[in-house]
Amino acid sequence: YLYRARCHLKLGNADAAFADLKTAESYDGTVADVHLDLGQFYYERSDYAAAFAEFDKAVFHAQGRDALAFYWRGLTRQKLGDTAEGQADLDRALALEHQPDVVPSASARS
Question: For position 110, what pLDDT does the model report?
Fold first, then answer.
């Protein structure tokens, strides 16, 4: 359902995308990407409280290893007026982006 939701978004079908994301969440609420996409959905609609909740879940389920989850949570915190914590999240996102991969990519192993 996650990838179908992404296809719906590309096609401009926001309502169908949201429905698929909620279905994906109902099947497995531990998939960080589902929460990341739901958060972006809410963020784009200026529902920052709902977006923050989803981005917080994304950080948790990614075990603090997803730079995008920290990035979006940081932006959302800033929108909610929590600039210090928002900046801390953005700094963490940047730090994660600059960490070497633990597992080499397929092209590096070839």
Answer: 36
